[in-house]
């Protein structure tokens, strides 16, 4: 027996949501590798690059900010590492 149309629509929506969540988590896992390839060690000083501090720093870098001190000032007060550590270890490094 075939379920009602409403049940079919609901199941389809739930399947789509599950696929979107799976795809999103896979893309998030690629972020640290991409940052490393760009010579940015953000994932070593920020435990969650998709958290408030990580996203603020990445948005600023995308907007053109390159000063490690300015980027470190974007850290959330709950971040374990202080501004100095983030500026030294997580900032973009000049490529020789």
Please write the string of helix (H) and strand (E) elements.
HHHH
Mean pLDDT metric:
85
What separation lies between the terminal Cα atoms?
Answer: 68 Å
Strand content: under 5%
Radius of gyration: 19 Å
Q: What characterizes the major β-sheet? A: none
Query: What's the total count of β strands?
Result: 0
Which structural class best describes the helix and strand composition?
A: mainly alpha
Instruction: Give the count of structural domains.
Output: 1
Poorly predicted ranges: none
Helix content bin: 55-70%
Count up the helices: 4
Q: What is the 3D form?
A: elongated
Task: Explain what this protein looks like in three dimensions.
This protein has 96 residues and is mainly alpha-helical. It has one domain. It has four helices and no strands. The protein is elongated. 17% of the residues are buried. The mean pLDDT is 85.
Which key features would you list for this structure?
about 100 residues; mainly alpha; elongated
Topology diagram in text:
Layout: H1 5-37, H2 52-62, H3 68-72, H4 83-90
Care to give the gist of this entry?
Helix content is 59%, strand content 0%. The protein has helices at residues 5-37, 52-62, 68-72, 83-90.
